[in-house]
Amino acid sequence: MTTMAGWLEGITILDLSQYIPGPLASLMLADMGARVIKVEPPNGDPMQHLGPRAPEGGPLFYQTLNAGKSVVRLDLKAPEDLSLIHISEPTRPRLIS
Known about the structure:
Strand order of the largest sheet: 3-2-1-4
Oligomer: single chain
Radius of gyration: 14 Å
Number of strands: 4
Shape: flat
Structural class: alpha/beta
């Protein structure tokens, strides 16, 4: 059996998506070794309030779809938060929105 872990090692994905389709796609990329940074609005991804809860009370679907990702909350309408996303050409991350 061939493993996909490591195929995308060294690739960074900037995930601006919410709910299910985008986070599911970036989860698969993370499973293949990509570094995924999920950028959420200040109140977080609305997916946190949907679906069943895990035994400890956390949002089960949200936790499952965002496993293995770094999550940051930014207000991309605020210049000071937008300035934190500096994309230089040689290391330009791939984008899911």
